[in-house]
Amino acid sequence: MSLDHDRADSASTSCDPTALIDSEARVDVLNRLRRAEGQLRGIQRMVESGESCLKIGQQFSAVRKALDSTYLRMTVCFMAQELEQRLSPDHEQRSDIASMMKDVETLLARMG
Fold first, then answer.
1. How many CB atoms lie under 10 A from the CB of residue 77?
2. Could you tell me the pTM of the whole model?
3. CB–CB of 104/76 below 8 Å?
4. pLDDT tens column, 30-65
5. DSSP codes joined into one string, 27-56
6. Residues 70, 36 contacting (CB under 8 angstroms)
């Protein structure tokens, strides 16, 4: 067995250090993705049944917004997770980081 193959095997069994490890955040992101998936299925049905392009366009817009907000949520959770792992904050600092991340999410959400 080659050294490269051994590295690939060990990499696939360990968690990527940049993965979203907070289980609550991961569940939130997955639930949002499932809702967007349902919306996409609805769009497919609308196209198949010959719905108005204007109605379909509204649904596309809704799905895009849902995916954008999901991406934003995942990014903010990832940032908070990385700050906590790298800085090892105490309880008060952890609370400050959580508050700051909520503010960042609010500010970024207003951009879209």
1. 20
2. 0.73
3. yes
4. 999 999 999 999 999 999 999 999 999 999 999 999
5. HHHHHHHHHHHHHHHHHHHHHHTT--HHHH
6. yes
